[in-house]
């Protein structure tokens, strides 16, 4: 039985995860330069080692209430479709593992707009909602 690894993080009280193979870096929150006030999904951009990275307000994207930034707030830089983006998260919890048997496709679970969620990973003590990075990046 093969296992896959994910970065598990929280937004509010909900646990989410992203594929570790698509994760470039986890960094502390830095100043983000706003570029488009009309787009509430994008918070702005950062300069990461001479590369401009768009920063996504992940809570807004998922229609969650935004938490105040804290010393646990992080940016997870991910790459999908040859594009890098930074996801603002409330806190990174762990590197987790799961098997395909523990994951259920989102289409089978909900009828609401779940385009940003790829599936649900069922762990004994928690559920992890896996982000669909192809829809975000």
UniProtKB/TrEMBL annotation:
InterPro entries: CheW (IPR039315), CheW-like_dom_sf (IPR036061), CheW-lke_dom (IPR002545). One of its GO terms (biological process) is chemotaxis. SUPFAM superfamilies: CheW-like (SSF50341). Gene3D superfamilies: CheA-289, Domain 4, SH3 Domains. Residues 3-137 form the CheW-like domain. GO terms for cellular component: cytosol. PANTHER family: CHEMOTAXIS PROTEIN CHEW (PTHR22617:SF23), CHEMOTAXIS SENSOR HISTIDINE KINASE-RELATED (PTHR22617). This is CheW domain protein. It comes from Desulforamulus ruminis (strain ATCC 23193 / DSM 2154 / NCIMB 8452 / DL) (Desulfotomaculum ruminis). The lineage of its organism: Bacteria, Bacillati, Bacillota, Clostridia, Eubacteriales.
